[in-house]
Amino acid sequence: MVDEAALTQLVTSLVPTMSRSLAEQFNVFRVMHHGTHEKQLSNVFAWLLRADASHHLGDAFQRILLARINSALSPDEQLPLVGFRVVQEVDTTVAADPGKDIADIVLLRDDAAVMIENFETSDGHGHDYENYLTYGSANQRRSVVVMLCGREERQRLSMGWEEAAVITYAEVLDDLRAHLDANRRWRADNPRQDVFINELVDQFVEGPEAMSLHDQLTFIKTMCETGESARYGRRPNDVVAKEFAEQVAQHAQRQFEDGRRTLGSVKRSLRQHAERVVRRRVNELLGGAAVRSVSANYQGQWEWCSTLVTADGEPNIFLEFGPTAVTENERAPEPVSHPDYSRVFVTRQAGAGIDRIIETEVTLAEVLAGLPDDDERLVGTVVAMMQDRSPSS
Question: To the nearest whole number, what is the mean pLDDT of the chain?
């Protein structure tokens, strides 16, 4: 029987070590934020597919991709491996249909067409499979529709896309890497292209590097301290590793989901305190309607926040915590040097960013328990910030 308390301790203890191994490492694609949009990555794949492009690989990548596509087709449906010209952003819309339906990459020969939709997951995301198939079959061509994606998720394939050949980035890039590993002459003659393709493989196939030796030793130490070290003596190793990973993943997911619910509870309680106490007391101390309203409608990285909407011309004040406080402290002109993210932070708007951030003494546990109406710690910090002076201790 799984010890839930032990798993909680294990997952919590492993987060720092594992997060370091998952942290962003240098890669030209990550630095340039390239490949974060399907059009960017389609440009790279189209470049690789063009036999006369500056990669000097000739038709090698065409062969690799078509071989993968053929492996998903029946023997009587096999396509030629080379001789295709490459076209991007092709409008496949039937004339009678409104709007446009654009195929990302199209490979054309007189006798065959490959219609490629490139997306992060195997999801047609609104594109018309039949339009793609019909466009490719013009002039009696053999037409095949392909979903090129980062992750294959069969449950997302619908509305005809379940008939598409699904090819992942990892499959074709692994094949490309194997081809280059066996081609020393090309690598010697094309060092810049070699570096670029290695970066491509690293970004979309290999992912983060393994943990450092220090982190591996910390991982082992944590396993020993949390009663999990016996797993190292079990066999077969791959089965034990998979079982361990699944248990940790399930528990981590549950902890993450519970954590998000707790953040939501903090947000509701903080907004209630801001509406019931902070707004009223700030207006009493500063006079008039210094704070006009309280809102908490931001999403994403700004979600964990209550906004004190101020009078016209005055900067809004934010009561922030958790992930939002982390984001704001990272971009503050004078960040808090040793932030305690178990507390509430107060920030002041300045254009699209902030110009001040203050860590308060109010803890998230206190917010969850319900701050009493006579607790004016947040009031004092907000008033001081609106008056542009340091809060009294």
Answer: 84
